[in-house]
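Side project, low priority. Logging it here so it doesn't get lost.
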Amino acid sequence: MYLEIVTPDQKVFEGEVLSATFPGTDGSFQILNHHAPLLSTLKKGIIVYKDKKEEFEVAIDGGVVEVLNNKVVVLAESIIVEE
C-alpha cells in the first residue's frame, strides 16, 4: 500500500509500505494492505510504518488519517523532533 505523511510545512514520507500503526484518538490501530476505507482522527503519538527492510517511527502532534483505494494519507498537525 502507498503511505503519505504530510504537515502544513513539509512532506515527511511518501512511498510503499507493508503496514502502518497509528495513535488514534480512541486507541492505537494498524492498517494493512487493501484495508477497508477509513477516516480517523489522530492524537499525539508515534506513527510506526514498515517496508520490506526496516521499521520507521514518526512522532506527531495529532492530525487525521484517510485510507482509500490502498492509499493512506496522514495530515499531521506537526512533527515532534526530539533533541
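Brief comment: Residues 2-76 form a domain with the ATP Synthase; domain 1 fold (CATH 2.60.15.10).
Revisit when time allows.
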